[in-house]
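Protein in question filed below.

…
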Amino acid sequence: MEAGRLDPSVDVLVIDYESVKTNPGLLIRQIRDELVQIVPGANLGKMLVNVPGRREPFPALYFALKSNY
């Protein structure tokens, strides 16, 4: 857990594709997913894309993940 990139007051679970060196560098390694649990078993995710020349990442899309556990 760490502070959200665009919302530092919110703790998020991060999936950072940049740290996996075998991921393609052109697009995949520029993506960072941030997830927040909204209710037990359900998470809201935000996909952030690092764009050259921009100070902050671009929020490209939102998604939901559901768990049965």
